[in-house]
Amino acid sequence: MTEALKVGMTHQIQVQTTAEMSAQKVYPHVPNVYATRAMVGHIEEVCADLVLPHLSEGEQTVGIGMQFKHMAATPLG
Q: Which of 15, 39, 56, 58 has an alpha carbon 20 to 30 Å from 30's alpha carbon atom?
């Protein structure tokens, strides 16, 4: 690793939710809201963006777990 990763480091992205990110893309009989699977993909993107500058050439990282809660449905748009 080029620089040490430190506890408490943060990174964020902003995305506008679209129909492609809808829970209805998975199953049509659920609300037309931001899907968990889309959110997990965005979480993975944020994590990869955060750690990338700290990896040396040829190094990689993979996630081993997640724990989160949806506190409310997120409408598209």
A: 15
Give the angle 63-71-38 at the CA atoms, nearest 5°.
45
pLDDT tens digits for range 1-42: 556 888 899 999 999 999 999 999 989 999 999 999 999 999
Residue 2's φ and ψ, nearest 5 degrees, are -80, -45
**Could you tell me the CA-to-CA distances from 25 to 10, 21, 30, 33 in Å, in that order?**
30, 7, 9, 10
Model confidence pLDDT, tens digit, residues 31-70: 999 999 999 999 999 999 999 999 989 998 888 999 988 8
Q: How far is CA 42 from the centre of its chain?
A: 2
